Amino acid sequence: MRLENFPDHIRPYILPKLEGDLFYRCLGCGREYSIEKLLYICPDCGQVLLIYDRNFDSLKKMSGETWHELFDYRKMVDIPALKGIFRFHEFIGPMLPLEAILYLGEGNTPMIVANERMQELTGLTFFFKNDGQNPSGSFKDRGMASALSYIHFLIEKGYLSEVLAICASTGDTSAAAALYAAYLQPKVKSAVLLPHKKVTSQQLSQPLGSGARVFEIPGVFDDCMKVVEALSERYNVALLNSKNAWRILGQESYAYEIAQDFQYQLADKAVVVPIGNAGNISAVMNGFLKFYEVGIIPDLPKIIGVQSEHANPVYRYYLESDHTKRKFTPIAVRPSVAQAAMIGNPVSMPRVIHLEKQYNQTAGRQRVFVVQVTEQHIMDWQLLANRNGHISCPHGGECLAGLMRAKQEGIISRKDQAVLDSTAHALKFAGFQDMYFHRQFPREYEIHPDTALMNTPVLLRPEGLDKYPEPGKPLYGEDFNRFVERMVTEIARDLKLQKT
Prior knowledge:
Strand content: 5-15%
Number of domains: 3
Structural class: alpha/beta
Distance between the termini: 52 Å
Radius of gyration: 25 Å
Shape: globular
Largest sheet: 6 strands, mixed
Mean pLDDT: 95
CATH architecture of the largest domain: 3-Layer(aba) Sandwich
């Protein structure tokens, strides 16, 4: 839709005014820093950062209803920079010119309501938001679009020249980082660190295909993260993990899209997200807080973070009901099918602590919860969801298991509607499904396949047929007719078909 065709009262706002004045603020000592330099931690105290806008209060001058109209009309704009997450430009990168914004098709992922059978089984109305339909197949693209757009902006302004972007990953972060960096070649190159044999073959193929330099490191993600952090402290590299506050800004778009999909009415809604490095739950809280403060949404939804009992440091932290006695302790993780959440020392934990307190205080009651689930329930619920027409990855299964746990604990009731984060495309984790179907899970996963959920192919090679077609050796005439007839008979018997 062309700009001249928009209503007169909305047309002046369609193109962002670039009035943001962003800065980093340390969550430890409170010091503030300019965004003209890449920063990941506070130079003074070493704590993580969040990005704030000195001109944020100016966004309150426009009514919530006008914001609703603006975002709805922007969905029709034929301008690539505003098609994805930067439809919410004023809340993500309000100082970024449109020509600096990198758009590869991220955002606008569908929210699919559970079918009737799943609603009957769970006793709840819920949706899967399929973030696996982002360009690299996961929600990480939201943060990378923001972080790489910012890097592109710094390059264009002359603050940076050639950039080596680097990250640690359990798979999805590396795929997203390599993809977005590749689009900006030769100005940006990428390198990724992966835990050896802890990433699926499908995920490993993605950064390799995008041309990244891939290093496999002994240990788990937490070990890779320590190496990357040391590299970013000693060398001139761009860190692309969620320690990068620009990643958090981009991932806030997940909250904005949910608000828009529900026409900004969130009083009886719950958003369920897996907790890995804790960047996503931080972004979701911050996104809803911003919309609430500006008046775009009148209520804050419940937010439910989910962790496997094999990787549960955040859950353990919140087991202590007295916030004055809480103490965060990193843990050694055990193998999990929810690989992206297999993190024992999440770098965004200070953000979670800060934002959870602010979120609940703003709501006037507890609206952020953390639950724990088993590996068995993660796989069983994922497979059950996919058997009912969804595209759920193990992390989507973790969310569904978490939803059921929240229902058991009285956090969720039948009147609530829940949105579950299916963070990545199920095909990235097809190996776990194969292990389930063939009873090949190593003991440490503590998963015992349910025969009702298992499914394997059936090889039809009926006795009595002495000739079968082969590649390059087709059958003809009576031999082929006999082959087709026997196959039809065997399939009909197996499926218990009735003749017409």
